[in-house]
Amino acid sequence: MYIEVCTACTPNREYVRVFDVTERTALHRHQTGRACHKCGAQLRDTIVHFGERGTLGQPLNWEAATEAASKADTILCLGSSLKVLKKYPRLWCMTKPPSRRPKLYIVNLQWTPKDDWAALKLHGKCDDVMQLLMDELGLEIPPYSRVL
């Protein structure tokens, strides 16, 4: 939600913002209202809305995500309904037999379409769960800073 791209430039030109670029976008309407500094074309968001499939190669990089998922032994999903990602069976390694798929761990306050497949589903707030996990691992969470 902080990245908008110019798809007229080759390669696509990315603009990383410190504000939410999706304020004017919606399902099947991805233009943000800003223009590319290089070519002047309309910029678009990189969000995949409910009912859509991602069409941008970058920054979403579905190919690399699929490859990483195929090598993973664990998938950790934090704070997502997983409703958009259910349309990407390759990300979930569904072509593999169940015993060879990565273990799925979900932290979310609501039901997700993948709950039944999860090795563990925690109904909780991500910050709370991650604080407990980091404490258990003996790791510190660095302080947040908005300064880039």
TrEMBL record:
A GO cellular-component term linked to this record: nucleus
Top-level taxon of the source organism: Eukaryota
Residues binding Zn(2+): C6, C9, C36, C39
Pfam families: SIR2
GO MF: histone H3K18 deacetylase activity, NAD-dependent; metal ion binding; NAD+ binding
The keyword Hydrolase is assigned to this record: no
The UniProt record lists the keyword rRNA processing: no
Keyword annotations: Metal-binding, NAD, Phosphoprotein, Transferase, Zinc
InterPro entries named in the record: DHS-like_NAD/FAD-binding_dom, NAD-dep_sirtuin_deacylases, Sirtuin, Ssirtuin_cat_dom
Ranges where the Deacetylase sirtuin-type domain occurs: 1-140
Cofactor(s) essential for the protein: Zn(2+)
UniProt record similarity statement: Belongs to the sirtuin family. Class IV subfamily.
Protein name per the record: Regulatory protein SIR2 homolog 7
